[in-house]
């Protein structure tokens, strides 16, 4: 296992190196107007002692924009390895400071959605497989297909119309109510949680279908296996056959999905956060990209690349843990 982990980590580092080079090359190819606009803004700040041309030269030198794409990439990479991703042009603070300020909103939003997704999708998928071609199976299948087909912006807008406009139960967007600062600590916590209801529902509705269908498909495959028929022939109760023998083996392919969900937990739900104006990493990165904030965009894409590679590594390790038949080399 140790040798496997070392090989995979080295491979992940190599992949990350080339992925970030492609990202940097794309950022390098952007029109120079983004850098020039930032240099102009810096020169117009109160107390600035540098002209726009001086700021432009300094920014180009710091991010390697005054060199070729290969040499410039190594300039950026040298700083990134040290944890220095520069200052966000849009937020006017360091990229890491802005990241620390918003990441936990995205994490809480994604974690709550992820927990409810598992608690709902897995039991429903198993129930549909146990009652194949029954009304339960058809209902679960239709619900899953509808959830998979609906775009995020449509679900979010529909929830806004129902809960905010028609019923008036929830605020249409944002993270704070109008009386937020007049509340005590517990009241502020409840107010924040209230604003997370519709984003959580949106993420659950659009995500639950694929996991539910995947669980159903794998459970059907397991239930048709020889060892399940043998267990039933031995007189074991259906409950033990399903919950002990079948469910454990259904978990094996699900591990790949669960391990790969890591980028979603920390990466932010960009569309959902933007629709509901939730100040998480997804919404923050969207605003930075629209504004041409090259440093923060590079930081966010590097962060997402690391999460994706780490999620794949966790999936491989968990696969070997839950299935003793798998041997890593």
What is the topology?
Blueprint: H1 2-28, H2 33-43, H3 52-62, H4 69-81, H5 95-130, H6 135-149, H7 152-166, H8 185-195, H9 197-223, H10 226-233, H11 238-259, H12 262-267, H13 270-276, H14 281-290, H15 294-322
Oligomer: single chain
Main sheet: strands, sense, barrel: none
Distance between the termini: 7 Å
Tell me the radius of gyration: 25 Å
Q: Any idea what the shape is?
A: globular
Helicity range: over 70%
Average pLDDT over all residues: 81
SS-based structural class? mainly alpha
Give a description of the structure.
This protein is mostly helical. It is 75% helix and 0% strand. It has 15 helices and no strands. It has helices at 2-28, 33-43, 52-62, 69-81, 95-130, 135-149, 152-166, 185-195, 197-223, 226-233, 238-259, 262-267, 270-276, 281-290, 294-322. The longest helix has 36 residues, at 95-130. The model has no long low-confidence stretch (mean pLDDT 81).
Short overview:
The chain is an all-alpha fold and 329 residues long. The protein has 15 helices and no strands.
List keywords for this structure.
single chain; 329 residues; mainly alpha; 0% strand
């Amino acid at each position: 296992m140790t040798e496997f982990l070392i090989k995979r980590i080295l491979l992940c580092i190599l992949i990350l190196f080339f992925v970030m080079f492609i990202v940097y090359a794309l950022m390098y190819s952007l029109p120079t107007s983004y850098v020039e606009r930032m240099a102009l803004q810096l020169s117009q700040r109160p107390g600035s002692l540098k002209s726009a041309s001086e700021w432009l030269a300094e920014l180009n030198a710091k991010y390697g924009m005054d060199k070729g794409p290969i040499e410039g990439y190594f300039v950026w990479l040298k700083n990134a390895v040290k944890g220095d991703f520069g200052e966000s042009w849009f937020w006017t603070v360091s990229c890491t400071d802005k990241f620390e300020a918003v990441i936990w909103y995205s994490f809480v939003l994604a974690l709550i959605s992820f927990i409810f997704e598992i608690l709902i999708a897995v039991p429903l998928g198993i129930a549909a497989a146990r009652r194949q071609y029954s009304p339960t199976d058809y209902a679960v299948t239709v619900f899953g297909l509808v959830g998979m087909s609906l775009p995020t912006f449509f679900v979010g807008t529909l929830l806004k119309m129902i809960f905010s406009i028609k019923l008036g139960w929830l605020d249409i967007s944002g993270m704070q109510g109008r009386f937020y600062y007049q509340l005590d600590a517990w009241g502020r916590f409840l107010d924040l949680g209230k604003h997370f209801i519709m984003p959580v529902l949106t993420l659950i509705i659009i995500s639950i279908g694929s996991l539910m269908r995947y669980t159903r498909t794998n459970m059907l495959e397991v239930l048709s296996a020889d060892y399940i028929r043998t267990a039933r022939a031995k007189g074991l109760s259906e409950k033990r056959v399903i919950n002990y023998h079948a469910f454990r083996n259904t978990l094996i392919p699900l591990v790949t999905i669960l391990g790969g969900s890591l980028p979603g937990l920390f990466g932010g739900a960009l569309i959902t956060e933007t629709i509901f104006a939730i100040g998480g990493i997804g919404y923050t990165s969207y605003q930075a990209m629209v504004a041409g904030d090259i440093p923060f965009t590079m930081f966010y894409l590097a962060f997402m690349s690391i999460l994706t590679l780490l999620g794949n590594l966790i999936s491989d390790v968990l696969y070997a843990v839950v299935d003793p038949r798998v041997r890593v080399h």
